[in-house]
């Protein structure tokens, strides 16, 4: 799509609308840095104040995030995701685990029914990467690999609303996985993940749901036991 010069009148509203379209379409992907202010001003044909006002409006809604000395980044790709991000920041690990239980049990079963060949490949790859990261000693790499695996399973549901909800929880999920990892002496032996991958790949919704319950129950027990 790209940016185009806007008409006179409610300039800020038009700029905001263009920015939202670029974000929602993926032209400005999640986590990416948006173009610098001079480039935006030139492309849109408006003043700096209009661009700044539009950026501030989207920062307020949670779609954009300023990083001092670096630039402005895409924080969420929809208002729904932005709202979830804001709420999840104020939640406890146990709260997030409870939400995950509600979402991931049914998502696992749905993924087992709906997964495509491409989903199977993605889940196999993510599961292998997660296993490999267990023995590497790099906690950050393990957390990233674990999250990538769960996102692959959620993606296999083919449900865009669920995918948006889960993506909006990414920060909270990352904190939860990191917390559980710190409490667990042997992440390689943590139950449920390989079983979940196998069940989804085999197209067994009952086994997939059971596997999801297994790893989430184990995580909850670890957190409760640390209190």
List its traits.
Four Helix Bundle (Hemerythrin (Met), subunit A); mainly alpha; Arc Repressor Mutant, subunit A; two-stranded antiparallel ribbon; 227 residues
Question: What can you tell me about this protein's structure?
Answer:
The termini are far apart. A two-stranded antiparallel ribbon has the order 1-2. The longest helix has 22 residues, at 93-114. The mean pLDDT is 87. With 227 residues, it is mostly helical. It is elongated and about 55 Å long. The protein folds into 2 domains: 11-77, Orthogonal Bundle (Arc Repressor Mutant, subunit A); 81-225, GntR ligand-binding domain-like (Four Helix Bundle (Hemerythrin (Met), subunit A)), CATH 1.20.120. It has helices spanning 11-25, 37-44, 48-61, 79-88, 93-114, 117-134, 139-155, 160-168, 170-183, 193-202, 205-225, and strands spanning 64-67, 71-74. A hairpin with a 3-residue loop joins strand 1 (64-67) and strand 2 (71-74).
């Amino acid at each position: 799509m790209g940016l185009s010069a806007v008409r006179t009148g409610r300039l800020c509203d038009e700029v905001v609308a263009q920015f939202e379209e670029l974000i929602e379409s993926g032209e400005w992907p999640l986590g990416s840095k948006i173009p610098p202010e001079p480039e935006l001003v030139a492309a849109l044909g408006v003043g700096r104040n209009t661009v700044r006002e539009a950026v501030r409006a989207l920062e307020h809604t949670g779609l954009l995030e300023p990083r001092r000395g670096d630039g402005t980044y895409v924080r969420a790709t929809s208002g729904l995701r932005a709202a979830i991000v804001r709420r999840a920041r104020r939640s406890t690990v146990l709260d997030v685990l409870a939400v995950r239980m509600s979402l991931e049990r049914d998502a696992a079963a749905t993924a087992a029914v709906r997964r495509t060949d491409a989903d199977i490949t993605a889940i196999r790859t993510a599961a292998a990467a997660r296993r490999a990261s267990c023995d590497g000693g790099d906690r950050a790499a393990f957390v990233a690999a674990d999250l990538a695996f769960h996102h692959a399973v959620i993606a296999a549901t083919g449900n865009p609303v669920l995918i948006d909800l889960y993506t909006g929880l990414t920060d909270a999920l990352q904190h939860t996985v990191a917390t559980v990892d710190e409490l667990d002496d042997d992440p390689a032996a943590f139950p449920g993940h390989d079983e979940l991958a196998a069940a989804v790949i085999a197209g067994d919704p009952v086994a997939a749901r059971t596997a999801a319950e297994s790893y989430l129950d184990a995580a909850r027990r670890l957190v409760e036991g640390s209190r």
